[in-house]
Amino acid sequence: MGLLAASFSFVCSHSVSASRPVTIVLDQTGVANLRLQTVEVEERDFETTVFAIGRIEEIPAQHSVLSSRIAGRVVGLNVFEGDVVAQGDVIARIETRQIGDPPPSIELKAPQGGLVINSHIRLGQPVQPDVELMDISDRSSLWAVAKIPENEAARVHLGSLAYIHVPALGAERLEATLIRFGVNVDRRAGALEGIFRVDNQDGRLRPGMRAEFSVVLDSRSDVLAVPRDAIQGDPASRVVFVKDFDLPNAFVRVPVVIGERNDRFVEVKRGLFPGDEVVTQGSYSLGFVGTGSSISLKEALDAAHGHEHNEDGSEITADQEKKAAKLAQQGEGPAGKSVDGRSRLLMIYAAVVSVLFLVVLQRLLNQRRLAGGDQS
After folding, report:
1. β partners of residue 149
2. For the sheet containing 72-77, what is the strand order?
3. Do 265 and 44 touch, CB atoms closer than 8 A?
4. How far is the C-alpha of 22 from the C-alpha of 297, rounded, in Å?
5. Residue 372: left if φ>0, alpha if ψ -120 to 50, beta else—which one?
6. 15 contacts 234 by C-beta, under 8 angstroms
7. Whole-angstrom Cα distance, residue 247 to residue 241?
8. Neighbours of 63 (CB within 10 A)
């Protein structure tokens, strides 16, 4: 029963301390080491999204094949794999098998502009009309194909906006709208394909790249929300670190109640107000600093305001000042208590040592008496 009560007491005290605001005061070195960044809390349009993964793929209608309409051999080749061509550019020259001196030849021209992604011909190579010679792909735009979970597909419709993150491009986000659904459902993944068209004029996207989608389902206005990086703690005790409006390099650990979250923001239902500055970058590391920083809250407040404060940062009241003065006169202030405590410890130590000495001495005397009796 006692162990159960002790465990219950520990859990209760831990939960209370976890929900209590705590101020963490750093020096300039600590702020620089943690690389802290803050943002101002504001009400914003908050979008409810569904997450999906997928790939960047080529648009089938923008892929063309070069071939020869007659048999012959390649006597001229102007383009190679990786080159960019425009529609109508001469790709190769084919010498026909018709009789002539020299034999007649024809020019093969690019059916569309784009990137040469495959080339199957070499100089002198014989060609036939039924053989593909070259593949050209127009990648000025591509498809981003998302695997939308079946249970969320009903809430997604043509024209739905999506924010697309391609890890190969870093932190950049692309925006696109849904243009069509796939014709089949992926049974293994339990997902329906949603196809988005993305611009690729700069050519940085490649088919096969991994993509992460946040498909917007609906939007609400005037929602208090903070960046996802600002939220810390376990699922039962969410907290943020708010920059103190008065003290420099001080941050208050504030419990919050959160709501929905999307790919960038988390809704905060209780605990924050518009205008608060919350820590984003470095907030995770700040959670491990605790109260063991180089500057205590009392020291920071004393320096900022020019007078003494209590250890918890509260103002010293008139009654506290009178009591402190009275105790100092009687020698019972903090210093007196410290000295008195040390004296008591010394007295207890001396008494214990004396008792041990007497016990040892008595045992030695008894041993000598016993030894003298044996000899006689």
Report:
1. 191
2. 105-109, 90-96, 72-77, 126-127
3. yes
4. 10
5. alpha
6. no
7. 14
8. 16
Amino acid letter, 137: S
Query: 142 near 117, Cβ under 8 Å?
Result: no
* The amino acid at 117: I
Give which of 187, 188, 142, 189 is closest to 168, Cα–Cα: 142
Quick one: which H or E segment has residue 374?
A: helix 334-375
Residue written as token pair 């096969």: 208
Quote the distance between the C-alpha of residue 192 and its chain's center: 28
Task: Please state, in angstroms and rounded to a whole number, the distance separating the CA atoms of residues 39 and 44.
Answer: 13
Closest by alpha carbon to 149, among 195, 189, 196, 197?
A: 189
* pLDDT tens for the chain, residues 1 to 376: 443 333 333 333 334 344 557 888 888 888 899 999 999 999 999 999 999 999 999 999 999 999 999 999 999 999 999 999 999 999 999 998 887 777 888 999 999 999 999 999 999 999 999 899 999 999 999 999 999 999 998 899 999 999 999 999 998 999 999 999 999 888 888 999 999 999 999 999 999 999 999 999 999 999 999 999 999 999 899 999 999 988 888 999 999 999 999 989 999 999 999 999 999 999 998 888 854 444 554 554 454 445 565 655 566 676 666 676 666 565 555 545 555 566 777 788 888 888 888 888 888 888 877 776 665 5
| Closest CA relative to residue 159, chosen from 77, 216, 88 | 216
Q: How far apart are CA 41 and CA 274, in angstroms?
A: 5
- Look at residues 186, 179, 197, 173 and name the one whose alpha carbon lies nearest to residue 147: 186
Both tokens assigned to 330: 């009687």
Distance of alpha carbon 150 from the chain centroid:
27
3-class SS at 113?
coil
Buried b (16+ CB within 10 A) or exposed e, 255-268: ebebeeebbbbbbb
CA–CA gap between residue 52 and residue 147 (Å, rounded): 6
Size (the chain), residues: 376
Which residue is listed with tokens 């006692």?
2
CB 143 within 8 A of CB 174: no
Separation CA 374–CA 341 (nearest Å): 51
The model's pTM is 0.64
What tokens does 331 get? 């020698």
